[in-house]
Design goal:
alpha/beta
Length: 394
């Protein structure tokens, strides 16, 4: 199969989802490998936007387990959790004989297990910001260097060109490898309309000129991720030969869980869990907060700068009510501690409820005629989605 490889700090999963939807819309079979999963591990392996079933997972698991046992018997090491899952994914997609695979890096890029793919069709680098600094470096430039590690000789790289420091690193690496580099800049897309149903925007590019696009998401940052996907498909047009109308339909019909996803009327879950992600979440919430009171369900894990996240949310959104809850297992932060930070930052109606299901129900009851945003951690998104699956009357 042919691979499109995607790295970046934020927006990787969404960009992968847009690409997968386009290939599926055009009639190709397309595998998608992403992480983490929200509820069940099968989510990490999709074919044509459907999670693989348990039997398929088990067959691939057994093949990889046999290989892992042989490696250990030879005195080598057992594959890590992520390496094991990556190998399972490659077995699944090979057995299914898919046409394309959209491959999301796990962490960084240069040393990521997914970087064992030698000849991808294209490399995409989404927005870069400070996250996982203990592994990837403490500056945008250092992190960009790790992400740019996925660039391969003569393979086109399409990247978010909004951050000058990151762009410089990516362009330098692309030049060293003789790889055509295409920067997505802010003047290439323009919002036309943003409603509770989604966003209409125009995209300007060399081959298609100006195209009118629609996405089923309310967050402005998804324009950039959709544009990266569309821009990539433009560069690969001689390979996939997908007509323009199918590209447009694919973007319009994309479904990606947990990223500004509407799970109930006026109830949105978002996995924003770092400073850049929260800033983008705030941009969306502020847009709708002009006309609708905002209620917030929030949780975060201990290795994130949750105090800063809470301050940003409190100052910018001024939510009508906040419910703080607990997620993350060994990295849990008590709901009472999170609630105290919201109170210190001026939020008047703040409730601490450790149980996620009860916290969600409480937040729903406080929403009234406004909007409820659930944010702060992908763990929170996963627990809410699991709760909704088990409690359809919610």
């Amino acid at each position: 199969f042919q691979v499109v490889h995607v790295a970046g700090t934020n927006g990787k999963g969404s960009t992968c989802a847009f690409l997968t939807s386009v290939f599926r819309e055009a009639g190709y079979s397309c595998g998608l490998f992403t992480s983490p999963h929200l509820v069940v591990i099968n989510e990490r392996f999709q074919i044509n936007e459907k999670n693989i079933d348990n039997d398929t997972f088990l067959r691939a698991f057994e093949k990889v387990k046999k290989l892992a046992d042989e490696l250990v018997a030879e005195g080598s090491y057992h594959p890590t959790y992520f390496e094991f899952l990556f190998l399972i994914g490659m077995v699944i997609f090979a057995d299914a004989n898919v046409d394309y695979v959209i491959l999301e890096t796990g962490l960084g890029g240069r040393l990521d297990a997914t970087n064992t793919v030698d000849h991808p069709l294209a490399c995409i680098i989404t927005s870069i910001s400070l996250d996982h600094v203990e592994y990837l470096g403490d500056t945008i430039g250092k992190i960009a260097g790790e992400k740019a590690g996925i660039i391969k000789p003569q393979v086109p790289v399409i990247y978010d060109g909004h951050q000058p420091e990151a762009s410089e690193v990516i362009e330098k690496r692309a030049n060293e490898l003789g790889s055509p580099a295409f920067a997505l800049t802010e003047d290439m897309y323009e919002m036309q309309k943003n409603t509770r149903e989604g966003i209409d925007f125009s995209f300007h590019c060399k081959y298609y000129n100006t195209v009118q696009l629609s996405i089923p998401y309310i967050a402005p940052y998804q324009m950039m991720n959709a544009s990266l996907a569309f821009f990539t498909m433009e560069q690969l047009r001689d390979v996939h030969k997908i007509p323009l109308e199918k590209l447009i339909e694919g973007l319009k019909n994309t479904h990606w869980e947990g990223r500004m996803e509407t799970v109930l009327p006026d109830v949105i879950v978002d996995g924003a869990h770092n400073a850049d992600g929260v800033a983008r979440f705030v941009e969306t919430a502020c847009h709708f907060g002009k006309e609708h009171p905002i209620t917030l369900l929030f949780s975060a894990v201990a290795d994130k700068d949750y105090e800063k996240m809470i301050r940003t949310v409190s100052e910018k959104i001024r939510p009508r009510a906040v419910v703080a809850t607990e997620v993350g297992g060994s990295r849990v932060v008590p709901a009472t501690e999170l609630a105290e930070f919201f109170k210190e930052d001026g939020c008047e109606q703040v409730i601490a409820e450790a149980n996620v299901g009860e916290a969600f129900e409480k937040a729903l009851s406080l929403k009234g005629d406004g909007m409820l945003f659930c944010v702060g951690s992908l763990y929170l998104v996963g627990e809410i989605k699991e709760y909704l699956q088990k409690n359809p009357e919610a």
